[in-house]
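Table 4 source record.
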Amino acid sequence: MKQYSYSLKALLLAAAFSLPTMAFAAEPAMMKDGMMVDHKGMTVYTYDKDAGGKSMCNGECAEYWPPMMAPAGAKAEGKWSVVKRDDGTMQWTYGGKPLYYYKDDKAAGEMKGDKKKDVWHVVHEHM
């Protein structure tokens, strides 16, 4: 019985120390070398035609500029938030701007979509 008591206390102690770190998920992207990238190093973009925190890139546009999707239950924190897309899925926003990838960026750090049609832009630190 004494062994069980010590094991239970150790388990409860481990859980208590783990809970604070589990409560906060990692941010969906981070700044690296002055630009925003996801956790795989892929470049993140904004679209000038988005308005009012709503994505205006749907259908064929979203095939070229895949939205940075937010998982079910994603919560706003700091500059991070989520917006519901026309198809009902959720998309990450940063500073109120919906976030996207560019389909022609194949490797970490590529930014082939920057300034595309003068309406697509890499997210930079000063945003």
